[in-house]
């Protein structure tokens, strides 16, 4: 079974004003920050040569609980081929899986904590992405 197939996104918390920090990245690094607070970098990949993939970049408010129960200021989203199978395997391997897989129009998402308490997001993109 394939596990991680790439990086789906990088999420981090601002210590102060998240909108101001995102604006700094937009002005100085040219990141196309969207109204939702982040950007999507598009690319075609070897596992999906006919489709388009994305890597998301997002600044979160310091008080965001999206990374909970982790207290880290970042979270990495990894692309996976089959999130349900991987979550099942991680549970069997004794990993600290958080909650259940969630499905939406953006794909399927699961979460696991690494041994240092960092929350990891696992993302199975929708077909064609």
UniProtKB/TrEMBL annotation:
Q: Which residues form the Glyoxalase-like domain?
A: 16-122
| Superkingdom | Bacteria
The protein's name in its UniProt record: VOC family protein
Report the Gene3D superfamilies cross-referenced here: 2,3-Dihydroxybiphenyl 1,2-Dioxygenase, domain 1
Q: Which InterPro entries match?
A: Anthracycline_SecMetBiosynth, Glyas_Bleomycin-R_OHBP_Dase, Glyoxalase_6
Q: Please give the organism.
A: Piscinibacterium candidicorallinum
What start-end ranges are recorded for coiled-coil regions in this protein? none
Matching Pfam families: Glyoxalase_6
